[in-house]
Amino acid sequence: MVDAIRARGKDFLLDVIGSREEGLKQIFSSASEHSSLIIEYVQRFGDFDGFFTKQNVAELTHAAGVEENLRLLQAESEAANPLVNA
């Protein structure tokens, strides 16, 4: 599924994390260019009944924060140099 979505031009914050053994695989999309919306894709295995493992939430939160910081830096750069980015 992730490969099919990527083929249509959607980026992701990182590779799929988790495993069948952990009971969960998941990935976050990159934010839309029009909003901060990030989509989470989850595949559960066995009797896992949640959305995150402790390790996964740390990795996903970090990746989302890095992307947001990059967007802020880009916006600041464009505001400071409007002719360079025209």
Structure description:
- The chain is built from 2 helices and 3 strands.
- It has 86 residues and is of the alpha+beta class.
- It has a 3-stranded antiparallel β-sheet, covered by helices on one side.
- It is elongated.
- The protein starts with a helix and ends in a 6-residue tail after the last helix.
- The model has no long low-confidence stretch (mean pLDDT 79).
Number of helical regions: 2
> Multimeric state of these chains?
single chain
- Give the helix level as a range of percent: 25-40%
DSSP summary, beta strand count: 3
What portion of residues belong to β-strands? 15-25%
Low-confidence stretches: none
The dominant shape is elongated
Strand pairing plus helix content: what structural class?
A: alpha+beta
Brief overview, please?
Helix content is 38%, strand content 15%.
Any chance you could write out the topology, listing elements then pairs?
Layout: H1 2-7, E1 17-19, E2 24-28, E3 40-44, H2 54-80
Antiparallel strand pairs: 1-2, 2-3
